[in-house]
Design goal:
Blueprint: E1 5-13, E2 23-25, H1 31-37, E3 44-48, E4 54-57, E5 60-62, E6 65-69, E7 79-84, H2 93-98, H3 101-105, E8 109-117, E9 122-136, E10 139-150, E11 157-161, E12 164-165, E13 170-171, E14 182-185, H4 191-197, H5 200-223, H6 228-238, H7 243-247, H8 253-261, H9 276-289, H10 300-306, H11 308-327
Parallel strand pairs: 1-2
Antiparallel strand pairs: 1-8, 3-6, 4-5, 6-7, 8-9, 9-10, 10-11, 10-12, 11-14, 12-13
Helix pairs in contact: 8-9, 9-11, 10-11
Length: about 325
């Protein structure tokens, strides 16, 4: 099965990832060393696409452009990644990694993992921040932020809040009320400058506020008891039953899997059993580890960080907020 990871590698601190691929690096690694270990020390370039119309002459601007990556490893030719418009500007991997340098130099956090997907179209770096969210005894959530950058014109550079619950390694994507959980920076003329402006003290304040709000929310969820009827209502919001299932009083397979996870002590400690926190984590656990069409195990990374998995978790978190407001 094809791997989602670029050239089947990445860099990581600590224990190997679930797929067992990559290069281990020491804690407090520098940005330059992390880039090299993750096989990301290459550049992308923007060239006029064949037959593209010139729409400005000083400097020359073309209607359509190709984004091309330098050859890596055994490759002998540059690799075309995308066809983009006139305003798209490249952000090199080194520029994206430099975004985290203040977090490392100020000892606010450290690099954790880094890599790229497919042919290098999407590059990501995950950093673990100092401090933890304490939901309860033996229930700790570590604070992570994820910087992602695309080289294929599919989206903006982005910063995402991706805390991880230690007891079961669930990735709990965060978002402020009514938000997507993504801070986006578009690939326009001043992207590197805009990324620099978003960092350091200003961004740290935003991050600390987001995680402080999350600690309050998670604590309230851990105190909110959920009966069987509450559980069904919550699951109906996320995974609606079909007309046939309603007529026959059947439950979707997703409901069955989530309810089974509620009885797994590694995911649902006895202290928070039958709570909204337990239900939310069962949903997240199912999404993180369910079988899907991605193929290789590492293929789920793309889904849970950037695709439908991220969207589902944000929807589940908003549903939890709404449930707490309604129950108050």
């Amino acid at each position: 099965m094809p791997h989602a990871l670029f050239q089947k590698t990445m860099a990581y601190v600590g224990e190997p990832p679930w797929h067992g691929l990559g290069t281990r690096v020491p804690a407090n690694v520098s940005a330059d060393a992390m880039i090299k270990a993750a096989n990301l020390n290459w550049h992308v370039h923007k060239f006029p696409a064949p037959g593209a119309r010139l729409i400005a002459s000083n400097p020359p601007i073309y209607e359509r452009n190709l984004i091309v990556r330098d050859p890596v490893g055994r490759e002998t030719e540059p690799v075309a990644l995308a066809l983009v418009g006139s305003t798209y500007e490249v952000l090199q991997n080194a520029e994206a990694f430099s975004f985290f340098e203040p977090f490392v130099s100020n000892k606010w956090g450290e690099f954790h993992t880094a890599g790229a997907l497919r042919n290098g179209e999407r590059v990501w770096v995950l950093a673990q921040l100092r401090g933890e969210i304490i939901v309860g005894r033996d229930d700790v959530v570590q604070r992570f932020i994820l910087l992602a950058n695309s080289h294929d014109g599919s989206g903006a550079a982005s910063v995402r809040f991706t805390p991880v619950r230690v007891v079961c390694q669930n990735t709990l994507n965060l978002a402020a009320r009514g938000k997507s959980g993504v801070i986006s920076i578009r690939h326009t003329k001043n992207i590197a400058l805009n990324l620099a402006r978003a960092q350091a003290q200003q961004l740290k304040k935003i991050i600390d506020k987001a995680f402080a709000d999350a600690e309050n929310l998670f604590g309230a969820m851990a105190l909110r008891k959920m009966g069987a009827q509450n559980v069904d209502h919550f699951l109906q919001l996320l995974f609606p039953r079909s007309k046939t299932q309603l007529e026959k009083s059947q439950e979707p397979a997703r409901w069955t899997r989530v309810k089974a996870i509620l009885d797994v002590e590694d995911v649902t400690p006895p202290k928070t059993k039958d709570t909204l926190w337990a239900l939310y984590n069962a949903i997240v656990r199912d999404e993180d580890y369910r079988e899907s069409k991605e193929g290789a195990p590492d293929g789920r990374l793309d889904r849970v960080w950037f695709g439908s998995g991220h969207d589902l978790k944000i929807k589940a978190l908003e549903a939890a907020r709404q449930h707490l407001r309604t129950a108050a």
